[in-house]
Amino acid sequence: TISRSPQDRQISKGKTTLSSSALTSALVAELDSYHGVTAASARIIGEAQKPTVVVKLSVGRQTDPIELVRRVEAEAIAQTRQALQVDDLPVQIDLTISDKKTARTS
After folding, report:
1. Measured between alpha carbons, how far apart are the two ends of the chain, in Å?
2. Each residue of 51-80: pLDDT tens digit?
3. pLDDT digit string (tens) for 17-45?
4. Which site from 27, 67, 83, 88 is most exposed, i.e. has the minimal number of CB atoms within 10 Å?
C-alpha cells in the first residue's frame, strides 16, 4: 500500500505500508545510477489503490533512448512493481536530451 504522508506509515495485520516518498526516492536512486542519465525524478500520481508512476529522465546525447527505456522497465519499474506487490502499474517515462556531461558507468 502506498501512503501519502509519513503519519500513514504502519505495520498492521501483516500488511506493510510504504510511503510514496520512500518509493520514489529508491526509484530515483536506481535511475540515477544508469549510464547516460544526467538527472532523474519520479512521482506517484492517482489513487493509492491505482497508482501511476511518472518518471522524468534527462539523458546525454549519446544515450540510446530505446535501450534506456527497456532497462528502466525491466529493472527499475520491475523492482517498483515488486515493492508494491502489483503486476499492473502504469508508467509514464519522459525523456529529455541534455548536453550535460555524466560520469556514470553502470
Report:
1. 30
2. 899 999 999 999 999 999 999 999 999 999
3. 778 888 999 999 999 999 999 999 999 99
4. 88
Task: Check if the beta carbon of residue 63 is closer than 8 Å to that of residue 102.
Answer: no
| Residue 15 neighbours by CB under 8 Å, 6+ apart | 1
pTM attached to this predicted model? 0.76
Cell numbers 506487490: residue: 85
Q: What is the DSSP string of 59-102?
A: EETTS-HHHHHHHIIIIIIHHHHHHHT-S---EEEEEEEE----
The CB density around residue 65, as the number of other CB atoms within 10 Å, is: 13
